[in-house]
């Protein structure tokens, strides 16, 4: 008879997750806790963060939570400083916080560009940079950036979002090369359209069209992204760095 129980994938790891109050970030926090990680989570939505943190604690997770806007360097620094104070090391960063604006080229403005890149560009960079500093000193660590199919495939209405997610794809390659000799792995996941609060904000027409572009004919679930993130973050992926894993129901296979 085969033994079906396996050791928790992230047992004892200290994991930071940005934008963890909702959607993919929250599902990742739940998955990481089930896999034995101790969590440090942040979000700029204080009420949602409090609720998420309480839910995680109720299910038995060890969680520190911090209100932090990843657009603000001082707040990101405090998030990392406080996490180090609490746990004294950081094994995993999931740079997840992002916004998903829907705009065609005609609708897009320079303000929308700046606002989007402040989160999906600068916010991802700052979190990656602070994590890299700490992990390099430790000589170990794993960073996972949230990219998107929108970075790779053109879609109507993603004239700003698509280029912004390309930042995560670029950070992954360049951080991976710099940090590989220092024992730090850096990867990305590129989700297809996933059923989260961010996607609820898109127009019905927009969602219908995008879902129709996924060969599996449905949206993904946040847990399906969390599973891929947990694998890349774990020691099971010990020889994987610089990879960008599509989790997209076949979207990028077309
Ligand atoms: N849902 C999808 O279809 C999809 C597809 C591809 C990639 N992604 C990426 O996955 C990530 C999560 O997306 P989601 O669908 O779960 O979104 P979501 O809106 O459901 O959740 C995002 C979370 O990030 C937080 N957040 C946003 N801006 C922040 C900031 N400046 N500082 C701190 N927290 C902030 C929000 O409050 C929220 O809790 C994003 O990077 C997104 O680009 C999502």
UniProtKB/TrEMBL annotation:
This is SDR family oxidoreductase. CDD domains: SDR_c. Keywords: Oxidoreductase. Residues 13-192 form the Ketoreductase domain. Signal peptide: none annotated. Belongs to the short-chain dehydrogenases/reductases (SDR) family. GO terms for molecular function: oxidoreductase activity. The keyword Mitochondrion does not apply. It comes from Fulvimarina endophytica. InterPro entries: KR_dom (IPR057326), NAD(P)-bd_dom_sf (IPR036291), SDR_DHRS6-like (IPR051122), SDR_fam (IPR002347).
């Amino acid at each position: 008879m085969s033994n079906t129980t396996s050791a928790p994938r992230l047992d004892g790891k200290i994991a930071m997750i940005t934008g963890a109050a909702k959607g993919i970030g929250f599902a990742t926090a739940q998955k990481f806790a089930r896999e034995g990680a101790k969590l440090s989570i942040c979000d700029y939505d204080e009420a949602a963060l409090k609720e998420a943190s309480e839910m995680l604690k109720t299910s038995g997770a060890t969680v520190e939570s911090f209100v932090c806007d990843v657009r603000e360097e001082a707040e990101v620094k405090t998030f990392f400083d406080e996490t180090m104070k609490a746990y004294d090391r950081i094994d995993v960063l999931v740079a997840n916080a992002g916004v998903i604006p829907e705009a065609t080229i005609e609708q897009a403005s320079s303000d929308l560009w700046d606002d989007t890149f402040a989160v999906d560009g600068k916010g991802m960079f700052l979190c990656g940079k602070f994590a890299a500093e700490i992990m390099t000193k430790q000589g170990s660590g794993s960073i996972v950036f949230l990219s998107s199919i929108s970075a790779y495939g053109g879609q109507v209405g993603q004239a700003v979002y698509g280029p912004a997610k390309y930042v995560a794809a670029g950070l992954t390659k360049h951080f991976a090369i710099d940090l590989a000799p220092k024992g730090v792995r850096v990867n990305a996941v590129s989700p297809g359209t996933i059923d989260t609060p961010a996607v609820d904000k898109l127009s019905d027409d927009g969602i219908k069209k995008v879902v129709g572009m996924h060969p599996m004919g449905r949206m993904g679930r946040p847990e399906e992204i969390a599973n891929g993130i947990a694998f890349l973050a774990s020691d099971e992926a010990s020889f994987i760095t610089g990879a960008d894993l599509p989790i997209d129901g076949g979207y990028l296979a077309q």
